[in-house]
Amino acid sequence: MKNIKYILGVVALSAITFSCSNDDDFTPAPGGGGTTGSDFSGVYMQQDQMARPAVNTVFVSPASKNMFNKTIPSEQNATFQGMFQANLEGLNPAFANPGDSNALGLTSEQFTGLLATDVLTVSLDGPTTFFDGTNVLTGRNLTDDVITVELILIFGGEAGLTNPEFPGLSNDNVDANDKDFLIGFPYLASAW
């Protein structure tokens, strides 16, 4: 019995040893395709852009989505701020009143000027947060309730945090993720 275990062990070890390959010797086949190699030649274009959640979805008119997605951020404000402002004032007519502002004290022109350049800014020397009551758009934590913050800034008016103009439209009522985030990398909760 001892000899059979020894022979089976040698056979298993041999199978493992001889079935391994040295992956750094891999050479893709010409023409690409599948696991034998991929062809990455050609011209590629950006097809979608969404640095801040829901901004593209809400403020870019449907006929302009493709153009917005292909426009580099440094050119977005000049091209799209007027559209953003018209759409914001359509969502919340109070913004069309001269001097009306949101919880940040921004008029519709100022607010949409900030949003039309769709980049996620990150503070290098302060808290990273979408909004924590003091800091605004200095980054984003996984736990930040970004949709509620955006709804407050659109529908909340000047006193959006304490007494929103449109309370039913100023909160998505989703206050937590369905699963707790991990405390270590990759931080996201596992799939259901």
Automatic annotation (TrEMBL):
What keywords are annotated for this sequence in UniProt? Signal
- Do you know which PROSITE patterns this protein is assigned to? PROKAR_LIPOPROTEIN (PS51257)
Q: Which domain of life is it from?
A: Bacteria
Q: Which residues form the signal peptide?
A: 1-21
Protein name listed in UniProt: DUF4331 domain-containing protein
Q: Which organism is it from?
A: Bizionia myxarmorum
Question: Taxonomic lineage of this organism?
Answer: Bacteria, Pseudomonadati, Bacteroidota, Flavobacteriia, Flavobacteriales
